[in-house]
Amino acid sequence: MRELVIHCREAQVEAFSDALLEVGALSVSVEDADEGTAGERPLFGEPGSEPDVQAWDRNRVVALLPDGADPAQLIEAALADCGLDAPMGQAWSLREVPDADWVRLTQSQFGPIEISEKLWIIPSWHKVADPGAVPDGLPPADEAGPEAGPAYMAPGVVRIELDPGLAFGTGSHPTTHLCLAWLEAEMPADATLLDYGCGSGILAIAARKLGAGATLAVDIDPQAVQSTVDNASANRVELSAMLPGGLPEGGFQVVVANILSNPLKVLAPMLAGRVAPGGHLVLSGVLERQAQEVAAAYAPWIAMSVWRAREGWVCLHGRRN
Asked: Residue 22: enclosing H or E segment and its boundaries?
C-alpha cells in the first residue's frame, strides 16, 4: 500500500482532509509539518474540550491510498470536492507502507490484565477454553507451575472476556482499574446498577459477574451500545444496554460513570438523581487536580471524596443519605 503526502495551509486542511476521504482515501491524518524543528507547536485543550486551534500553520496531510489509485486524480477530485481550485502550490509525494497484519499487531498490545487476584480482563483473542488447558499465545504459567496454568485460570477467578470493538474500554486505563477495584471491594451483593458512559461495557459486565443484580448500561454512541451487547453475550451475562433516551425512570443502588471531568460536572444533577437513597455513586475519569472541582459539582446532592488514586487519576465515591 502507499501513502500520499501533501502540505496544506491551516485554512485549507480540514476541508481538504474531509474531501480526500470522500473521494476514496482509506484514511487521512494531519501532522505538524514543522515537527522536530524550532517551529513545532503543540495543540491541546483541557480533557473533555476541543483545542482552540484545530491545525498548524503548516500541515502535512497523509492519506492512505487504496491499491491502484492514481494520486494525481485523487488530489484533483478532492480539490474539486472541497471547492479549492488550485493544488495549493505544493508538490506531493508518495511513500510505501509495508505490508503487515494490522489486526494482529494491534491485538498484540493487549494481553490479559490483572485487576486483582480474583479479577482479570481477558482480550477476546486470548480464548480461555477451560481451567485445565493453556491456550496458545497466552502468557507463561505462574509460580504454581506450568501444569496449573496462568494465574487467571485458577478456580474462583472472575474472567471478563472483552472485545472493545470501536468503543472505549480495553481495561488497561487506570480509571477503569479504579472502577473495577471499587466494584470488587465495595459493591453490595445483588445491587441494582447503572453504568453511564459504558463504552465497551466492561464495568457493567464486571458488576454482573461480581454479583450485581439488574444492570443497565448507557452510552451516547450507538457503536458503544452494540459493543456492550456483544461483550455481554460473549460473557454470558444479562444486562440492558441503550442510548440515554431509552433509560427508564428510577434510581439504582450503584451508579458508576467513568468518563471525563467536564461531562461529569454537566451530568451532576442527573447522575446524582439516579442514585437511590442509601446508594453509591462512583465517578472516575478525573485527574487528581480535578477531584475537588468535580466533588463540588455534586455537593448539593452527595458528598464525594477520593476513594483511591492511581497514576494521577482518582476514583470518587459518595453515598446518598
From this structure: helix 10-22
